[in-house]
Amino acid sequence: MLSRMKRDANRYAYSAAGDRQAAELGKYRQQWEKLEGREQVPKVQEKAQKIERDNTPGMSRQNVLR
To answer: How many domains does the chain have?
Structure first.
């Protein structure tokens, strides 16, 4: 059961829908880090912004890596 949940979570995380959700939730990253007392790592922020810019239909990680 657990391995099925992991597999399904990975499929979603590495799909176009997962990319869209990550970009959408990225806007809250700075607020969470401020609440947690952490500084944001510039590379992570740049990657989130790139995903948001490149977030067009059909642009999933799977398609880009092929």
So the answer is: 1
